[in-house]
Design brief:
three-stranded mixed beta sheet; Olfactory receptor; Rhopdopsin 7-helix transmembrane proteins; mainly alpha; sensory transduction; 12 helices; transmembrane helix; olfaction; transmembrane
């Protein structure tokens, strides 16, 4: 394990909570429940959007993208984390770790960009409702969603694959999964190129989209205040506040994680933050974005053949 390149390391040890077996049992239960809620909630949303033609609108097109994304995002790491809670020595091969790191990073960036696109969609819908169907046509929606997926790939996977890491025999990852920053702490080669890439990518995928979202919701707020209907204002405020809650949790934790100075004391903090944007947010998305929505409740009512949905 003393080589100077990553071929000398064939596996990694994921430390996680292995030092605290009692806490690990609780962590296993929480992870399992949250993962099942994420899967069931997002699969239900995808099915309802496909099933009910009334949900074939730009808003639900983007929500279906988000639901599919959250299923993939959590499935990239959470099952491995659940299994690791059941073994004494949780290990992962070098290839699996690299794949998990690339996939998790890629899907996380897709979510950043997709949330910005969804904010733009809501801005047009509330600020210019009469021209909304024309401005947000099917072709533009497909282009915006496709741009999010393709741009994220170019910003994350391509640079990671072209910048090799040297681990020099270091194989203990103080994390629950193969998180990028946790992996970089093991590297022994010059990381200045990586650090520059992280700063540029963080600006393009975190700060810039977050500023765009805040600007969009600022314009939404102005449009809502001009509404004559009190019920319409209440509905718009409720929707916007719910969306902003998820956006704040996801962007806030990701920005804190990737744009704050890293030190040895930040390792345990990083674990908690990673849980917030990697596990909690995908679980909350279907509850906040869709399942509280009257249209989705109506689709569920239609599916179940009931007159009323509580």
């Amino acid at each position: 394990m003393d080589g100077r390149n990553d071929t000398a390391v064939s596996y990694f040890l994921l430390l996680g909570l292995s030092e605290y077996p009692r806490v690990q049992v609780i962590f296993f239960c929480l992870l399992l429940v949250s993962y099942l809620i994420t899967l069931l909630g997002n699969i239900l949303i995808l099915f309802l959007i496909h099933y009910d033609s009334r949900l074939h609108t730009p808003m639900y097109f983007f929500l279906s993208n988000l639901s599919f994304l959250d299923i993939c995002y959590t499935s990239a790491s959470v099952p491995q984390m659940i299994i690791n809670c059941l073994v004494k020595i949780p290990i992962i091969s070098l290839g699996q770790c690299r794949t998990q790191m690339c996939v998790g990073l890629y899907l996380g960036v897709v979510e950043c960009l997709l949330l910005a696109v969804m904010a733009y969609d809501r801005c047009v819908a509330i600020g210019d409702p009469l021209r909304y169907p024309v401005r947000m046509g099917p072709e533009l929606c497909a282009q915006l969603a496709g741009a999010s997926w393709v741009s994220a790939f170019l910003l994350t996977v391509v640079p990671v694959l072209t910048m090799p890491l040297e681990f020099c025999g270091r194989y203990i990852i103080n994390h629950f999964s193969c998180e990028l920053l946790a992996i970089l702490k093991l590297a022994c080669n010059d990381l200045r190129t990586y650090e520059l890439w992280i700063m540029v990518t963080s600006f393009l995928t975190l700060l810039a989209p977050f500023a765009f979202i805040l600007t969009s919701y600022g314009r939404i707020l102005v449009a809502v205040l001009k509404m004559n209907s009190a019920e319409g204002r209440k509905k718009a405020f409720s929707t916007c506040s719910s969306h902003l809650t998820v956006v704040t949790i996801f962007y806030g934790t990701a920005i804190f994680m990737y744009m704050m100075p890293q030190d040895k004391a930040s390792r345990d903090r990083d674990k908690i933050i990673a849980m917030l944007y990697g596990v909690v947010t995908p679980m909350l998305n279907p509850l906040i974005y869709s399942l509280r929505n009257k249209d989705v409740k109506g689709a569920l009512q239609k599916l179940l053949g009931e007159k009323n949905v509580p």
